Amino acid sequence: MNSTPDRTHPAPSSRRDGWSARWRSRMRDEQGSATAEYAVVILAAVAFAGVLVAVMRSGEVQTILTDLVRGALSS
Q1: pTM for the complete prediction?
Q2: pLDDT > 70? residue 46
């Protein structure tokens, strides 16, 4: 029987410890978080713009805006 550890296949506990150390390291690393925050803000802005376009295309809103512009121009 060989008393030296097998270097080709690490022991399960050391493999698990290495994985957990990498996981903890990645969870502490905030690299890319600002980019993700910008992506969420842009997505929210696009959704808001879509709702705004839908509201602006309604006939009632167009009438109100047209009357507002005509009133401003006739003054």
Answers
A1: 0.46
A2: yes
Q: Is 5 helix (H, G, I), strand (E, B) or coil?
A: coil
Percentage of the chain modeled with pLDDT above 70: 69
Round to whole Å and give the CA distance between 25 and 54.
Answer: 45
Q: CA 44, 45, 47, 48 torsion: positive or negative?
A: positive
Phi, psi of 2 (to 5 degrees): -90, 130
Q: How far apart are CA 28 and CA 24, in angstroms?
A: 6
Give backbone dihedrals phi and psi of 64, rounded to 5 degrees, phi first.
-60, -45
What pLDDT sits at residue 29?
66
Q: Which class for 27: exposed (0-12), middle (13-18), buried (19 or more C-beta within 10 A)?
A: exposed
What pLDDT shows up at residue 48? 96
